[in-house]
Amino acid sequence: MGTETLLLILTALAGWSFQEVTSLSRVDRSPPGSISNVSKNDTGVQKAVLTGTYAFNNRSNDAFLFKALEIDDAKKQIVKGIKYILEVRILRTVCRNTDNADLNNCHFQPKGKLHQIFHCHFEVWAMSWLKLMKTTFLSCRP
Predict the structure, then answer these.
(1) How many Å apart are CA 109 and CA 93, to the nearest integer?
(2) What does the alpha-carbon distance between residue 60 and residue 25 come to, in Å, rounded to a whole number?
(3) Distance between CA atoms of 91 and 68, rounded to whole angstroms?
(4) CA Rg value for the chain
(5) Residue 41 half-sphere exposure toward CB, CA atoms < 13 A
(6) Which stretch of DSSP H or E encloses residue 51?
(7) 58 with 100: CB under 8 angstroms?
(8) What does the alpha-carbon distance between residue 38 and residue 76 come to, in Å, rounded to a whole number?
(9) Residues 37 and 75: beta-carbon distance below 8 Å
(10) Residues 124, 52: contact at Cβ < 8 Å?
(11) Taking the CB of residue 15, how many other CB atoms lie within 10 A of it?
């Protein structure tokens, strides 16, 4: 194998390696402040959904509490903490709104007159160093 051929092969390999590294870094990194998808099973998402649901229940005049049925979409944005942007379906439970009940112990209303689902958009701001989670926006519709 001649020197020219060897140089050509090494140049091609170096170019390929550089391309792989730069394309991987583009996939793994998004610009600061941009919104990105996050797993619905992420613990931060789960806490944000609970925070948003409690905010809904605190503002609701309904006789019963609601809790999350399904997380339809979850996104996050890094902004002086993490802002979770969530699309969630919540369903009325059998727990009274005056009980101060733990939602984990509340069962959903059975099908029938009291069965009601809301489609909600929650925005929850988490600042872990302050141990703070705050619902900054919520909008729900039947």
Answers:
(1) 5
(2) 45
(3) 6
(4) 24
(5) 0
(6) helix 43-59
(7) no
(8) 6
(9) yes
(10) yes
(11) 10
The strand pair at 82-96 and 64-78 is best described as antiparallel
* Measured distance CA(76)–CA(78) in Å, rounded: 7
Residue 73 to residue 87: CA distance in whole angstroms: 5
Tens digit of pLDDT for each residue in 78-117?
999 999 999 999 999 999 998 778 899 999 999 999 999 9
Write out the two tokens for 5. 């051929």
If you count them, how many residues does the chain have? 142
Name the DSSP letter for residue 111.
S
Cα–Cα distance measured from residue 98 to residue 64, given in angstroms and rounded to the nearest whole number? 8
Over residues 4-63, the pLDDT tens digits come to 655 445 555 555 444 444 444 444 466 778 999 999 999 999 999 999 999 999 999 999
Tokens 């503002």 locate to: 59
